[in-house]
Amino acid sequence: MLTKCKIFVAKTAGFCFGVDNAVKIVYNKLNSRHNVATLGPIIHNPNVVADLEAKGVKAIDITQAQKGQTVVIRSHGVGRAVYDELERRGANIVDATCPFVSRIHKLAFGHEGTVLIAGDPSHPEVEGIMGHCKGEVFTFKSEGELRGIISDNKLSGKNVLVLSQTTFNKAVYEKCKAAVSQLLPQARICDTICSATAERQREARELARKADVMIIVGGRHSSNTLKLKDVCSEYCKTVLVENASELVEGDFEGAQLIGISAGASTPAYIIKEVQQTMSEMTKTTEEEVFNFEEELEKTLKKIHTGQKVEGYIIGIDQNGEVKVDIGTKHTGYIPAGELTDDPSLKPEDVVKPGDTVDLIVLKTSDTDGIVTLSKKKVDAQKGFEKIVEAKENDTALTGTVTNVVKGGVLVTSGGVKVFIPASQATARRDDDLNALLKKTVDFKILEVNEAKGRAVGSIRALLKEQRAAAQAEFFEKAEAGQTMTGEVKSVTEYGAFVDLGGVDGLVRKNDLTWKRIKHPSDVVKVGDKVEVTIKDIDKEAGKVSLTMKKDSENPWNVFKSTYEEGQTISAKIVSITSFGAFAQIIDGVDGLIHISQIANQRVNSVGDILKVGDEVEAKIIEINDEQQRISLSIRALLPEGEDDAPEADDEE
After folding, report:
1. Is it the case that residue 300 has pLDDT exceeding 50?
2. Does 125 participate in catalysis according to the annotation?
3. In the prediction, which pLDDT does 264 show?
4. CATH for 308-374 (2.40.50.140, 3.30.70.260, 3.40.50.11740, 2.60.40.1760)
5. Of 53, 85, 112, 125, which residue is the catalytic one?
6. For the stretch 129-153, what's the b/e string if a residue is b when 16 or more beta carbons lie within 10 angstroms of its beta carbon?
7. How many CA atoms lie within 13 A of 333 on its CB side?
8. Looking at the domain that runs over 555-637, which CATH code has it been given?
9. What pTM was estimated for this model as a whole?
10. Range scoring the smallest mean pLDDT among 170-174, 194-198, 609-613
């Protein structure tokens, strides 16, 4: 007798939906028909097959099908040619193909190009999948085989679809998918491993990590049973038995923890017998063993539309569809459109394998064993509660602008779409609403209709509050002479308005630059970040005068440090007047050449001698620092001669 130890039975052990459905179909047909046959063993379990044979159900091949005979196609499925042959022979076809296998058939048949299948080419399921392919098809069982197929058949650039047998090893398939992504980036990769299989393998692996010995219960010809054995063998001693009679005490000597799992074609009563036998062999009481029947009952529980369930994320396919385990024999799917209302998010931004999330059932199909689920509806319910709370507490929310619609925009926050009228969407009524699209914004709730689940919000109201707070802080701290950075909000003929963070200050045209300009737009444009200095501040009136001029760049100071009276310079004529010409000495500093200082003879019209743009040599004859004026003379540099030029009246 073995020493008492702990025994754990994996909750996912046993019939998957597809197998359970196929077996039930055969037993049901026995009640209403005679001459019932299955195209090959209905499942890879000798105990079930033997029981059916005892009840008159024969397992036949296609050449034995007879006219009028009821032929059940097993859960593995078959190729299209098999259906055609059965019809030709006059058999009554009852299709018990697993819905997840049927999905693979549709994918294969709908593909125009090369199909790569991860699986055993001699397995009935893989043979059936191949029978639905219209082009070239290859099978592989490892990453190495896959790489060889891609290289030998020059598949690069071809239209390739990658599928897997529903019971294929998930860890191996992940490696193969990575190889395809590297070598055939154009290929379409589908996650077609049955969720029940993936979950069974995951759970068995976790149990094997803790156990001293694992017992795998199932047929020796069952693909998914053998893969379970392979998975567990990596971590501990693993024994495969078809029923309790094959248990040998010697396999469990010294074991402190024994784990039990079973393939998808193993009936619950056989698993129960194995569990009870091990309990007797180890003197473990029923109460000390994981309650398998109770857990099995949970997996068979009914679910209905609108029900809230908890789901375990298994994987995400290339189309953004998420596969979910919801704790029943069904397989759950979240369509990409039911994950989130935020179009900027990818499925992997919302969920990842291993996450546990709340979901709502949208649709169930007991025939297919598929449940369609929604995460965004749960998020919307939770999000609307936050909307109501934000309205009651007058707090701000954050969301993403997902749509520009007639009369405003839609902002998604916590899975809820909030309408924001155009008049409440921007700080200024003439701002373009399209500029908000896909932007993250803060807003307040103005109205809530709980009965209809609708809400109206305002970005502008929050901006107004924030601006008022910023203004109060600004006028509390700001002083004349202070330098800061702002953003140009608008440009007019007389200057530019700069946003200093809640307060707009005016930079007049003459304060924009030391240079001579025609229009403020010559210096700044809307959106520019500029450094300004406060010239004057009227806190009561809320007005701020600014300058962008820097003393260090004052042209007069530059001139004074470089030039002096009596110095000869080159200058450019920039304007002509009746009493002389102004010449630019440096940028921002002009000197006057009086009409009397242009030539040695009388000058009746300045324009007769000088033109705008002329480069001239002149002498600085006076610098008036107080009035910042400079007098220049061309005449002072001319050769001495008869001076016919009388003194002219100073018309300046």
Report:
1. no
2. yes
3. 79
4. 2.40.50.140
5. 125
6. bbbbbeeebbbbbebeebbeebeee
7. 19
8. 2.40.50.140
9. 0.46
10. 194-198
